[in-house]
Design a protein that fits this description.
There is one protein chain. This protein has 20 helices and 20 strands. It has about 525 residues and is an alpha/beta fold. It is extended. The relative contact order is 0.05. The N terminus is likely disordered.
Length: about 525
Amino acid sequence: MTDEKHTLKKDALFRFFSNDFDSYTELIEDLEKQPVSTKELADFILMVHLSPMATLIINEELRIQYVNKESIRQTKTEYETVIGRTLMELSFMNLHGSDIRDLWKQAVTNGKWSGTVNYLDKDGCKKSYLLQLICLSDQETQEKYCGLFLLDALHLGEINNVERQFAYFDRVTHLPNFNQIAYDINKHILSNEQQPSGLALFRCSNIAKISALYSREVRKLVTLEMVRRIQNLLPENYRLYRLSREIFAVYVKPLTDEESFKACIEKIRNYILQPLNIDKHVILMNIEIGATSFPSKTRELSDLLEHAGICLDQHETSKIVYFSEEMTKDFTTSLHTVERLKPSIEQDLLEMYYQPIFDHNDNIVAAEALLRWNDPELGYVPPNRIIRYAEEHDYVSELANWIIDRVFKDKLYKDYSINVTINVDVTQVEQPDFLESVQRLIKEHQVDTGKIIFEITEHQAFEKSPLAVEILHKLKDLGFKLALDDFGVGHSALALLGDLPADILKIDASFITLNNS
């Protein structure tokens, strides 16, 4: 077999770095004719060509053999007019020829040269470049070349100033961010003033759902409106921060009146809960609020953020949770429980019990899947506690996936010709990977979806979540049945039937019991 590849010709050496190829595919095809590692070299060429750093290659006559796109941008000229010109002729290099030749000699002698070059350009403006030269050599002809890498030091300094500013401010809202509040609290600690202070954290828990249902632009408008509403009600010595995409903080120092602090937070809560009219949509924000104060609730100023975060992790929608000492103990317990839960799920140490469901003739027609966990250290942990702790520490997806995977894997419906019920709540359904995980497990276990019933608890939470309702409809499309548990509890239960595609209603006893008094 004849190798059709030929030696890489000298006149083609820099052509592959130029912009004469119209696509990556064309570059690959051209390189395949050369005795080179095609993919790696093509990636390298593309990387150099699109680099944000001006990159040039010159020969011993200091004439330019190659420039990348950033060099073209800085010279404000075309590629064809730059190639072959000397380095001294470039508009952004106003160096004396002898200086450049001296740099060339040092690069050739030592293999490279790097440093800062300061000069006045042709317009009389001060320029400062970080410059590096690397000596290249043609192994066949022994001709020398130098690769030049230039970075505008003054421009870089401007960028660094902007980046330092962004390090302490949120780019979207221009509010001070987590770094700034941490700095402010630490400064308060170091001052030894021990002034009373208050902190409230606000989380818009459905901001990701708003983005999924509408658009990122709508999410941005919702965020900015939330900022506007909070700022409109803040007294003079209160400061607003944005700690993350979902979480905002209100910090006050000194806190002269704790009751006024609570009243302010309450006003903000009520204002935020009012419907938003954005882009022809009526949007409701789900708000969780955790608050604490120093020294009345939190004894150490350094614990202020942590304790407010513990309150926020109670996930009490539309309520204000104030810190108490008992919460620290509960938080530690829940955290330890979830830390024990993680390896138990990974090692498949949880159990699934199936409780039979009878018809009026005492025939078993279905079974309800019930989670059970006996931990060697914790003992028996009730299912409602497992789920609550998993929600507090963002472990819902893993737990829900294990439950569904186990039920699908057991295939009780196949062995006993009955339906199997899985309990789900709105938090599980709203997980970003919930539907995708269900679809994957259907294929993995070859599930007869018509035999599986997803039983919905806390219907009113679904009523407030368009995303969860949408996912329920998609579960129906996959063939699953849906049941409403405890139907009749709460207000407007019948109205839910118009939104939730239920097949089965489990009537609450209080709904049908006659009052004989």
